Amino acid sequence: MEGPSVEELLAKAERDEAEKLQRITVHKELELEFDLGNLLASDRNPPAGLRRAGPSPEAELQALARDNTQLLINQLWQLPTERVEEALVARLPEPTTRLPREKPVPRPRPLTRWQQFARLKGIRPKKKTNLVWDEVSGQWRRRWGYQRARDDTKEWLIEVPGGADPLEDQFAKRIQAKKERVAKNELNRLRNLARAHKMQLPSAAGMHPTGHQSKEELGRAMQVAKVSTASVGRFQERLPKEKAPRSSGKKRKFQPLFGDFAAEKKSQLEMLRVMNSKKPQLDVTRATNKQMREEDQEEAAKRRKMSQKGKRKGGRQGPGGQRKGAPPSQAGKRKGGLGGKMNSGPPRLGGKRKGGQHQGGKRRK
């Protein structure tokens, strides 16, 4: 049996090469739009093959996805490449498609009182050098902190200023002044923190304008001071009967961006099932009870408001149990049925008879 000739082998090789080129070459009427930074390809060609596919277009969809993916890969092979740790990688360009944010834009941090004052007055910060010349030691030292220049806390002798009490301890006075400065800075820091969280703190003097602070105000100030540490109050000491602080929030856990396709598919199918379901996803009994409770609470609030309003309007009661401003028909005790003692008004039935005539109560002459 004779083997294939040379011409047949060459023809077969040409056919194989043509098939390979056909697999990587895709012809489209309209060129695709590529965003290689996001690995995105947009096909603007009308899906004519899907219309002819009928009720089962899976094969046409797979062929269309394969062709578009091949065009995207062809574009990637045209990018400049570089070698990173024995691997050949392509450098992607900057993305051109603006994708929407998943999270809202973070709000700017509110300004402190000093920043607001500096902006109002046009004060600009001046950058100072960290090292200054210390004339006492004859060295360059830090401007602040440990071993700083002109450190007056290391002096063994302090001159008593003019007009000061000669018996006053200047060292203790200096220490007390430093404590006051530290306390003032801490109060300003808490104020800025409270302003950022839209909370309220005690006044600058540490006391309420009325002379005392309520229990709620003291508790709020204490809570803010506790959570203002680096550990958010986790390691702060608590009183014997103090309740454990509530957690300020839980760290949100998000699904991974890639890799877990099964969970993503399951969540999307569940969403589609809920959207296509004809049965309402609402507990009617629970919703009705909630609406009834809200209506009862509104009515109770209205009644309390009306009762408080009536107490404020009603003054002291006059003689006979009558309130000032009340109608005369509601005043005093009534005698003889419908008619009672009245100072004014038309005669009524059932009052005392005087002179054989049926008069409605006593009348002033």
Automatic annotation (TrEMBL):
Residues 202-259, 272-365 are annotated as: Disordered. One of its GO terms (biological process) is mitotic metaphase chromosome alignment. Keywords: Nucleus, Ribosome biogenesis. Residues 235-245 have a biased composition (Basic and acidic residues). GO terms for cellular component: condensed nuclear chromosome; nucleolus; nucleoplasm; preribosome, large subunit precursor. Residues 302-315, 350-365 have a biased composition (Basic residues). It comes from the Eukaryota. GO terms for molecular function: 5S rRNA binding. Pfam families: RRS1. It is found in: Nucleus. The keyword Nucleus applies. InterPro entries: Ribosom_reg. Belongs to the RRS1 family. Involved in ribosomal large subunit assembly. This is Ribosome biogenesis regulatory protein. It comes from Vulpes vulpes. The gene is RRS1.
